[in-house]
TrEMBL record:
Residues 173-271 form the HTH araC/xylS-type domain. The lineage of its organism: Bacteria, Pseudomonadati, Bacteroidota, Cytophagia, Cytophagales. GO terms for molecular function: DNA-binding transcription factor activity; sequence-specific DNA binding. Keywords: DNA-binding, Transcription, Transcription regulation. The keyword DNA-binding applies. This is AraC-like DNA-binding protein. Transmembrane segments: none annotated. It comes from Aureibacter tunicatorum. Pfam families: AraC_binding, HTH_18.
Length: 278
């Protein structure tokens, strides 16, 4: 039988954004996901690992982690952490009239983690945001201004990456958002192109430019990633997973998964179980 993953929701209907100090007693967690909001985590202290989907990341403060909706993550720390946690719903950024804020957010969340050269001003921006959001009357202009400054500062202090001004990335991010929101797991490029008010050819060109993949390969990568989450973190049968991902039968799903993941679903699940035990 299908066993759903632990889904946590620290947001509320009245608060589209929330900033709090990282809880120091939280060192280990079970694999879970947040399907209603994004999470940005800044650590100025701590040691151990943070797993996001199939990626296990060494904690090397100062650093930030970007966790998208539907991504599965968990902590395994052996030292007291210190930092901040920010959660916000997608509509908070998407409804902003400041295009620069949207571009910075898209750039920031295109990386699972970012190592920083220093953290003093990053800590100050998080602290200012936390204080502002506790005011009885919160100014959206102040919050957006602080967010833009924070996102820009993180990217400025990031090691090995630079902010991008590529406008095509906005359309690519919209495709990613559609893939996350689409629970029918549509695999047709033309359907996404229509929703984005563009052509399949243009969507294909943008995906090649940003990811060096075709639009079809980007869609397949998302579906395979979701399949891997279910295989690794649930006890659903392969047939149940195939049905959940909108495949007509399990054999079609197995062929699709093997073509894109170079391994069968059964073999992937077995290797995931072995890795967990180790």
């Amino acid at each position: 039988m299908h066993q759903p993953l632990d889904i946590k929701d620290k947001s509320s209907d009245k608060n589209s954004i929330k900033v709090e100090a990282f809880r120091k007693h939280v060192r280990t967690t079970k694999p879970h996901k947040h399907n209603n909001y994004f999470e940005l985590i800044f650590l100025s202290q701590g040691h151990g690992t943070h797993a996001i989907d199939q990626e296990k990341i060494d904690i090397q403060p100062p650093m930030v982690f970007g966790i998208g909706k539907e991504q599965i993550h968990y902590w395994d720390m052996d030292a007291e952490p210190e930092g901040y946690v920010m959660i916000f719903r997608s509509d908070f950024i998407m409804n902003s009239h400041d295009k620069a804020l949207l571009e910075l957010a898209n750039e920031l969340f295109s990386h699972s983690h970012i190592l920083l050269s220093k953290d003093e001003s990053i800590t100050q921006f998080f602290s200012l945001l936390a204080k502002e959001l506790k005011e009885l009357t919160v100014s959206p202009y102040v919050v957006e201004g602080l967010l833009k400054a924070l996102f820009g500062k993180i990217l400025q202090m990031a090691l090995h990456i630079k902010p991008t001004q590529d406008k095509s990335k906005n359309l690519y991010q919209q495709l990613v958002d559609l893939l996350i929101e689409n629970k029918e797991y549509d695999r047709k490029v033309e359907n996404y192109a229509e929703l984005l008010n563009t052509t399949p050819q243009n969507l294909n060109a943008i995906c090649r430019k940003i990811e060096n993949l075709t639009a079809s390969e980007v869609i397949a990568a998302h579906i395979v990633k979701e399949a891997k989450r279910l295989l690794a973190h649930s006890n659903s049968s392969i047939s149940e997973i195939a049905f959940h991902l909108n495949f007509k039968d399990s054999s079609h799903f197995v062929k699709y998964f093997k073509r894109h993941a170079q391994v069968t679903p059964g073999a992937f699940r077995s290797s995931s179980l072995i890795e967990k035990r180790n």
